[in-house]
Design brief:
Blueprint: H1 27-93
Membrane topology: Single-pass membrane protein
Protein name: NADH dehydrogenase [ubiquinone] 1 alpha subcomplex subunit 13
InterPro entries: GRIM-19
């Protein structure tokens, strides 16, 4: 068995370069840069959240201010329906009957019924 000898072509090129770090930013500089970018991002996020809260508040108040208008529209519709019911009742029965034992106005309740009933 032959002795352990160096390879025939040698060990390859001799390393003569120094072990220097790559020409880049130092880790501390990178961390500071990333921190600055994150702080800016959180600042913009906070501004966006504030803007969303303001828009939600404005939307809520606009709906609150519309409630009387919507209520008046519903009341006009109820009066129109009530007068139409009274006219239809007078046409069919000849006289308006009091359903309740009181002169107080009772808001009608409407129930959706199917057009055809099953047997």
């Amino acid at each position: 068995m032959p002795q352990d000898m160096p390879p025939v072509g040698g060990y390859g090129p001799v390393q003569y370069k120094r072990n220097l770090p790559a020409p880049s930013f130092r880790p501390g500089t990178l961390i500071l840069g990333m921190g600055a970018v994150m702080i800016y991002g959180f600042y913009k996020l906070g501004q966006g959240i504030r803007e969303q809260n303001e828009l939600a508040r404005e939307k809520m108040w606009s709906r609150i201010h519309l409630i009387p208008l919507l209520q008046a529209e519903e009341d006009r519709d109820l009066v129109r329906r009530h007068l139409a019911d009274q006219a239809r009742e007078k046409e069919l029965l000849g006289d308006n009957f009091k359903v309740y034992n009181s002169d107080r106005y009772v808001r009608p309740t409407y129930a959706v019924t199917p057009s055809t009933t099953s047997k």
